[in-house]
Design a protein that fits this description.
Number of helices: 5
EC number: 1.3.99.-
Number of domains: 1
Function: Catalyzes the oxidation of protoporphyrinogen IX to protoporphyrin IX.
Subcellular location: Cell membrane
Largest sheet: none
Cofactor: heme b
Structural class: mainly alpha
Helix content: over 70%
Membrane topology: Multi-pass membrane protein
Protein backbone atom coordinates (compact mmCIF):
# COMPACT_ATOMS: atom_id res chain seq x y z
CA UNK A 1 0.00 0.00 0.00
CA UNK A 2 2.87 2.41 0.71
CA UNK A 3 4.09 2.19 -2.89
CA UNK A 4 0.60 2.99 -4.15
CA UNK A 5 0.42 5.95 -1.76
CA UNK A 6 3.91 7.15 -2.76
CA UNK A 7 3.15 7.03 -6.48
CA UNK A 8 -0.23 8.69 -5.87
CA UNK A 9 1.59 11.60 -4.20
CA UNK A 10 4.15 11.81 -7.02
CA UNK A 11 1.45 11.93 -9.72
CA UNK A 12 -0.67 14.40 -7.75
CA UNK A 13 2.35 16.71 -7.30
CA UNK A 14 3.17 16.42 -11.00
CA UNK A 15 -0.42 17.11 -12.06
CA UNK A 16 -0.56 20.13 -9.76
CA UNK A 17 2.65 21.48 -11.30
CA UNK A 18 0.76 21.65 -14.58
CA UNK A 19 -2.34 23.11 -12.93
CA UNK A 20 -0.14 25.84 -11.44
CA UNK A 21 1.87 26.61 -14.59
CA UNK A 22 -0.68 26.45 -17.42
CA UNK A 23 -2.70 29.43 -16.12
CA UNK A 24 0.58 31.38 -15.89
CA UNK A 25 1.01 30.74 -19.61
CA UNK A 26 -2.54 32.05 -20.06
CA UNK A 27 -1.53 35.27 -18.24
CA UNK A 28 1.27 35.74 -20.76
CA UNK A 29 -0.96 34.85 -23.70
CA UNK A 30 -3.53 37.42 -22.60
CA UNK A 31 -0.83 40.10 -22.51
CA UNK A 32 1.05 39.11 -25.68
CA UNK A 33 0.73 41.05 -28.95
CA UNK A 34 3.63 39.56 -30.94
CA UNK A 35 2.31 36.70 -33.16
CA UNK A 36 5.53 34.66 -33.05
CA UNK A 37 5.62 34.78 -29.24
CA UNK A 38 1.91 33.93 -29.09
CA UNK A 39 2.53 30.85 -31.24
CA UNK A 40 5.39 29.74 -28.99
CA UNK A 41 3.25 30.20 -25.87
CA UNK A 42 0.38 28.27 -27.50
CA UNK A 43 2.74 25.43 -28.35
CA UNK A 44 3.97 25.34 -24.74
CA UNK A 45 0.39 25.41 -23.43
CA UNK A 46 -0.73 22.58 -25.76
CA UNK A 47 2.19 20.35 -24.78
CA UNK A 48 1.74 21.08 -21.09
CA UNK A 49 -2.01 20.41 -21.23
CA UNK A 50 -1.45 17.04 -22.93
CA UNK A 51 1.25 16.08 -20.44
CA UNK A 52 -0.74 17.11 -17.37
CA UNK A 53 -3.75 15.21 -18.71
CA UNK A 54 -1.58 12.09 -18.83
CA UNK A 55 -0.43 12.75 -15.26
CA UNK A 56 -3.98 13.21 -13.98
CA UNK A 57 -5.06 9.70 -15.01
CA UNK A 58 -2.66 7.66 -12.83
CA UNK A 59 -3.15 10.15 -9.98
CA UNK A 60 -6.89 9.46 -10.04
CA UNK A 61 -6.50 5.70 -10.53
CA UNK A 62 -4.04 5.40 -7.65
CA UNK A 63 -6.32 7.52 -5.44
CA UNK A 64 -9.26 5.27 -6.25
CA UNK A 65 -7.08 2.24 -5.51
CA UNK A 66 -6.25 3.64 -2.06
CA UNK A 67 -9.89 4.46 -1.35
CA UNK A 68 -11.67 1.42 -2.79
CA UNK A 69 -8.88 -1.16 -2.65
CA UNK A 70 -7.35 -0.38 0.73
CA UNK A 71 -10.36 1.29 2.33
CA UNK A 72 -8.63 4.57 3.16
CA UNK A 73 -11.38 7.04 4.05
CA UNK A 74 -14.13 4.43 4.31
CA UNK A 75 -16.39 3.93 7.28
CA UNK A 76 -17.66 6.17 10.05
CA UNK A 77 -15.63 9.22 11.00
CA UNK A 78 -14.30 9.72 7.49
CA UNK A 79 -16.37 12.68 6.34
CA UNK A 80 -13.11 14.34 5.33
CA UNK A 81 -12.93 11.90 2.40
CA UNK A 82 -16.25 13.12 1.00
CA UNK A 83 -15.02 16.71 1.17
CA UNK A 84 -11.72 15.69 -0.46
CA UNK A 85 -13.57 13.88 -3.25
CA UNK A 86 -15.57 17.07 -3.84
CA UNK A 87 -12.26 18.94 -4.20
CA UNK A 88 -11.04 16.28 -6.65
CA UNK A 89 -14.18 16.71 -8.76
CA UNK A 90 -13.64 20.50 -8.75
CA UNK A 91 -10.00 20.00 -9.78
CA UNK A 92 -11.03 17.78 -12.69
CA UNK A 93 -13.46 20.51 -13.71
CA UNK A 94 -10.69 23.12 -13.41
CA UNK A 95 -8.43 20.93 -15.54
CA UNK A 96 -11.08 20.72 -18.27
CA UNK A 97 -11.76 24.47 -17.98
CA UNK A 98 -8.06 24.99 -18.73
CA UNK A 99 -8.52 22.89 -21.88
CA UNK A 100 -11.50 25.01 -22.90
CA UNK A 101 -9.57 28.23 -22.30
CA UNK A 102 -6.67 26.88 -24.35
CA UNK A 103 -9.04 26.23 -27.27
CA UNK A 104 -10.29 29.82 -27.02
CA UNK A 105 -6.73 31.12 -27.20
CA UNK A 106 -6.01 28.84 -30.18
CA UNK A 107 -9.09 30.17 -31.98
CA UNK A 108 -8.35 33.80 -31.09
CA UNK A 109 -11.55 34.01 -29.01
CA UNK A 110 -10.16 34.86 -25.57
CA UNK A 111 -11.99 37.82 -24.05
CA UNK A 112 -10.47 37.72 -20.56
CA UNK A 113 -7.69 39.96 -19.27
CA UNK A 114 -4.37 38.93 -17.82
CA UNK A 115 -5.66 40.16 -14.44
CA UNK A 116 -8.53 37.64 -14.58
CA UNK A 117 -6.06 34.85 -15.32
CA UNK A 118 -3.93 35.92 -12.36
CA UNK A 119 -6.92 35.22 -10.08
CA UNK A 120 -7.82 32.06 -12.01
CA UNK A 121 -4.26 30.86 -11.37
CA UNK A 122 -4.83 30.90 -7.60
CA UNK A 123 -7.77 28.45 -7.65
CA UNK A 124 -5.71 25.22 -7.65
CA UNK A 125 -3.49 26.61 -4.88
CA UNK A 126 -6.51 27.10 -2.63
CA UNK A 127 -7.92 23.68 -3.53
CA UNK A 128 -4.59 22.02 -2.79
CA UNK A 129 -4.39 23.69 0.62
CA UNK A 130 -7.89 22.48 1.50
CA UNK A 131 -7.21 18.94 0.20
CA UNK A 132 -3.96 18.61 2.15
CA UNK A 133 -5.60 19.86 5.35
CA UNK A 134 -8.45 17.40 4.87
CA UNK A 135 -6.09 14.45 4.34
CA UNK A 136 -3.61 15.28 7.09
CA UNK A 137 -5.86 16.78 9.78
CA UNK A 138 -9.02 14.75 9.01
CA UNK A 139 -11.20 17.37 10.73
CA UNK A 140 -14.43 15.36 10.46
Amino acid sequence: MLYVKAFHIVFIASWFAGLFYLPRIFVNLAMETEPSTTERLLMMARKLYRFMSLLMIPALILGLWLWLGYGIGKGPGNGWMHAKLAIVVLLIGYHHACGSILKKFENGQNKRSHKWFRFFNEVPVLMMIVAVILVVVKPF
